[in-house]
């Protein structure tokens, strides 16, 4: 009956481990809002970007239901947000609002790859992703990952 | 120079797999394995030179014949010669096919090809061909095919060295691909391959081509994976077909084998982890040197895999007549190979299929001049796999589950030979738990951490 006990032990381990990974899974979602630049000494913290959650239920502004958008703030080497996660539907329009003190380019590692160019000052750009996947978006110059789009 | 890290090659990653699917897969794998192990499998099956199907002599003559051998070698050499063109004269950006050839075609592509045809890379390895030609040029008898080099003027390959050089070479390659910030810098990749060629040359000068069999990372990797193909040889050296698990048991248990499998398994885990949101955010909110951090983390994971496996396989009673304890890890290490293959399929299938196509498109224009040498420049990438995420997810779970089940069976079968009857069940416990640990790390990473 040793074998029965073995199986019991193993299955308990399985459940314990899977429970752990499950709770970890949830906790990784939590700090989404607090992802910040290395230090925010003085200059505007990037957190004030209206948390771009995919749920567009509450929009008290007069504008028609706003689609998903991401605010990017670039000051030299400092790039925000820090790997913001965003769920996006295939072919759904995503709006980039980029405020930067230099010209540059975002690399969107979608299939196929895309590039969002921006100049000094404020830039608004739209794009869609046509292939499902987990898409990293990085600032070309600093290689900082600003967003990870979960395209379904 | 371009600034995209190597795992950024080929665009988007696959979507994380739903938790319930992975848990179902993991549980199924373990349940099946335990049931098979403890109830049905009481006699070692794979450690005997039996159950072989002799390849009919006419076919064997062709497959083993000089014509095919020379043709494959020539093909390998020709391809290397061609690749020197983009490597030397091509543009230093991602339109250069060198990166796709190295990371997709060679590194990932050798897995399915070896699964089908056995040690396929050995058959085309241009470095081996060049060194064997050098052997002829200097009038040296080439080293023995599979065992020690015994040509004139050669040192015998020391048994304690075993696969250690290959584990270093494999680490160097996964470091180049996954950690180095210059993995997509042409100059650096060229330098890497130059150093690799130099290492092969120096080792060959001392040990002959026996060195290549144990030091060339691509050949060793291909040989290990090739042991999951049906192609093997009987004791007389003739070509036979056997079941993949029987073939797997024929991996020669040399020193350093545990290091090799630890590098292969650990680096795949590192690759998943390093593209997780948690890790990216952590790295970006600290001013630590990313290369140093990545190198440290990858080494740490590899060492953990190596140590847990070594400790777990040694944690058994051994009889006075039985296998010495320190021999156990390397004699069980072959059981990790199917797990590695499972993870390679799970992690790199879409990369191979889609970036592989991208490479096919790019290779028509090796010099970056707008050429269309092979007529592939205008092809478009077929993203069918990415467009069907549930298919990809199912393949991933299936690959990992299959890998683990095969691994557990292989380890159990070998344990039946190695362990005395009274140590059989308790003696395998630690190893089983190590494998449970690997499964869960793997599945956890597949969730998207």
Largest interface: A-B, 46 and 47 residues
Report the sheet-strand fraction of chain B: under 5%
Radius of gyration of chain B: 22 Å
Order of helices and strands of chain A: HEEEEEEEEE
Helix content of chain B: 55-70%
| Rg calc of chain A | 20 Å
pLDDT < 50 runs, ≥5 residues of chain B: 1-8, 144-150
Number of domains of chain B: 1
Level-2 CATH architecture of the domain at 68-152 in chain A: Sandwich
Structural class of chain A: alpha+beta
**Going across the major beta sheet of chain B, what is the strand order?**
1-3-2
* Mean of all residue-level pLDDT scores of chain B: 88
Helix proportion of chain A: 10-25%
Your description of this structure?
- The complex is a heterodimer of chains A (152) and B (449).
- By secondary structure, chain A is α+β, with helices and mostly antiparallel strands.
- Chain A has a domain at 68-152: Immunoglobulin-like (Sandwich), CATH 2.60.40.420.
- In chain A, 18% of the residues lie in helices and 35% in strands.
- Chain A contains one helix and nine strands; from the N terminus they run αβββββββββ.
- Chain A has one helix at 2-29; strands spanning 69-75, 78-80, 84-88, 94-100, 104-108, 114-118, 121-127, 133-139, 145-151.
- A five-stranded mixed sheet of chain A has the order 3-9-8-5-6, with no helix packed on it. Chain A has a four-stranded mixed sheet with strand order 2-1-4-7, with no helix packed on it.
- Chain A is globular, with a radius of gyration of 20 Å.
- Chain A starts with a helix and ends with a strand.
- Chain B has a three-stranded antiparallel sheet.
- Chain B has helices at 19-40, 57-64, 66-89, 97-108, 110-117, 120-124, 126-137, 164-179, 186-207, 210-215, 217-226, 244-248, 257-274, 277-284, 290-314, 328-332, 337-362, 384-387, 389-418, 424-446; strands at 53-54, 231-233, 239-241.
- With 449 residues, chain B is an all-alpha fold.
- Chain B has one domain (6-53, 93-117, 175-184, 210-446).
- In chain B, β2 and β3 form a beta hairpin.
- Chains A and B meet through α1, β8 and β9 of A and α1, α14 and α20 of B.
């Amino acid at each position: 009956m040793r074998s029965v006990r073995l199986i019991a032990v193993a299955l308990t381990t399985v459940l314990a481990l899977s429970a752990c990974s499950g709770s970890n899974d949830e906790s990784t979602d939590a700090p989404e809002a607090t992802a910040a630049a290395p230090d925010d000494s003085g200059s505007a913290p990037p957190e004030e970007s209206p948390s771009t959650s995919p749920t567009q239920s509450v929009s008290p502004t007069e504008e028609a239901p706003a689609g998903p958008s991401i605010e990017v703030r670039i000051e030299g080497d400092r790039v925000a947000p820090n790997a913001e996660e965003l769920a996006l539907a295939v072919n759904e329009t995503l709006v980039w609002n980029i405020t930067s003190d230099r010209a540059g380019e975002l690399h969107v590692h979608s299939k196929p790859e895309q590039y969002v160019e921006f100049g000094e000052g404020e830039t608004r750009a739209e794009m869609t992703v046509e292939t499902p996947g987990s898409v990293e978006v990085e600032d070309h110059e600093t290689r900082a990952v600003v967003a990870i789009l979960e395209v379904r | 120079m371009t600034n995209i890290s190597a795992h950024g090659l080929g665009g988007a990653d696959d979507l994380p797999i739903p938790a319930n699917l992975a848990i179902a897969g993991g549980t199924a794998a373990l349940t099946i394995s335990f049931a098979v192990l403890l109830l049905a499998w009481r006699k070692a099956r794979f450690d005997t030179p039996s159950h072989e199907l002799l390849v009919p002599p006419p076919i064997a003559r062709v497959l083993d014949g000089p014509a095919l051998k020379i043709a494959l070698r020539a093909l390998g050499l020709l391809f290397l010669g061609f690749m020197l063109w983009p490597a030397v004269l091509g543009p230093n950006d991602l339109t250069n096919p060198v990166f796709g050839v190295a990371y997709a075609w060679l590194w990932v592509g050798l897995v399915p090809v070896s699964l089908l045809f056995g040690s396929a890379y050995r058959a085309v390895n241009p470095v081996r061909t060049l060194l064997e030609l050098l052997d002829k040029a200097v009038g040296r008898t080439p080293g023995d095919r599979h065992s020690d080099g015994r040509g004139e003027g050669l040192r015998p390959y020391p048994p304690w060295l075993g696969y250690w050089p290959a584990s270093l070479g494999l680490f160097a390659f996964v470091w180049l691909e996954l950690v180095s910030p210059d993995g997509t810098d042409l100059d650096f990749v060229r330098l890497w391959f130059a150093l690799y060629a130099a290492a092969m040359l120096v080792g060959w000068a001392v040990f002959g081509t026996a060195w290549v069999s144990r030091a060339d990372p691509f050949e060793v990797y291909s040989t290990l994976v090739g042991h999951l193909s049906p192609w093997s040889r009987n004791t007389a050296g003739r070509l036979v077909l056997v079941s993949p698990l029987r073939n797997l048991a024929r991996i020669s248990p040399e020193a350093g084998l545990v290091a090799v499998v630890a590098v292969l398994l650990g680096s795949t885990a590192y690759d998943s982890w390093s593209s997780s949101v948690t890790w990216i955010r952590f790295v970006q909110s600290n001013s630590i040197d990313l290369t140093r951090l990545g190198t440290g983390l990858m080494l740490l994971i590899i060492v953990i895999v190596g140590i847990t496996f070594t400790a777990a396989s040694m944690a058994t009673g051994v009889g006075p007549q039985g296998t010495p304890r320190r021999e156990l890890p390397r004699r069980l290490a072959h059981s990790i190979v199917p797990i590695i293959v499972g993870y390679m399929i799970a992690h790199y299938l879409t990369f191979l299929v889609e970036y592989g196509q991208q490479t096919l498109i790019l290779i028509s224009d090796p010099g970056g001049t707008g050429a269309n040498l092979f007529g592939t420049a205008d092809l478009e990438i077929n993203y069918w796999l990415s467009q069907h995420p549930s298919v990809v997810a199912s393949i991933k779970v299936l690959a990992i589950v299959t890998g683990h089940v095969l691994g557990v069976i292989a380890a159990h079968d070998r344990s039946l030979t190695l362990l005395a009857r009274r140590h059989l069940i308790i003696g395998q416990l630690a190893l089983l738990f190590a494998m449970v640990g690997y499964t869960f790390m793997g599945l956890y990473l597949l969730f998207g951490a």
